[in-house]
């Protein structure tokens, strides 16, 4: 049974209260419980992390890379939040640590402000899911498992 790491970036700790018309009413705890249930149904476990700090997210990507090499971790489902549009460091961490990542966004970033249309993560992600609400996390888990054939 492999572990799937679910990483969440800045402001995702505010799910359920931050702009519910855009992000929904589910809390981060709700999302984590749904992810755990989905992973378990596929024979895997989930570890969920959230940080508002870019360097912490980089460190978790590095950790995922080390744990993938030992066979403990399968990959990462990652909602980088606003760092999607700004972080070359996260882009480089994914490449350097050789981590299969499914990028997830709750809202359809392509239907929002122009600055949200560019992602530094998408070019290095194994797949991207946008605009499916918190169900996107579950699709990300399923997609990661299917893509890696595990």
TrEMBL record:
The record marks 18 as: Transition state stabilizer. Pathway: Metabolic intermediate biosynthesis; chorismate biosynthesis; chorismate from D-erythrose 4-phosphate and phosphoenolpyruvate: step 3/7. Transmembrane segments: none annotated. Its EC number is 4.2.1.10. The active site is at residues 23, 105. It holds the Pfam family DHquinase_II. The keyword Lyase applies. Homododecamer. This is 3-dehydroquinate dehydratase.
């Amino acid at each position: 049974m492999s572990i799937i790491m679910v990483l969440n970036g800045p402001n995702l700790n505010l799910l359920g209260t931050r702009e519910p018309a855009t992000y929904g009413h589910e809390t981060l705890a709700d999302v984590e419980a749904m992810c755990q249930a989905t992973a378990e149904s596929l024979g895997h476990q989930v570890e969920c992390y959230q940080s508002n700090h870019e360097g912490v997210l980089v460190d978790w990507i590095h950790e995922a890379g080390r744990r993938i090499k030992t066979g403990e971790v399968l990959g990462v489902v990652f909602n980088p939040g606003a760092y999607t549009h700004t972080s070359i460091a996260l882009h480089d961490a994914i490449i350097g640590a050789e981590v299969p990542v499914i990028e997830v966004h709750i809202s359809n970033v392509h239907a929002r402000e122009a600055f949200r249309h560019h992602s530094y993560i998408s070019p290095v992600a194994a797949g991207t899911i946008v605009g499916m609400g918190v169900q996107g996390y579950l699709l990300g888990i399923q997609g990661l498992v299917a893509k890696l054939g595990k």
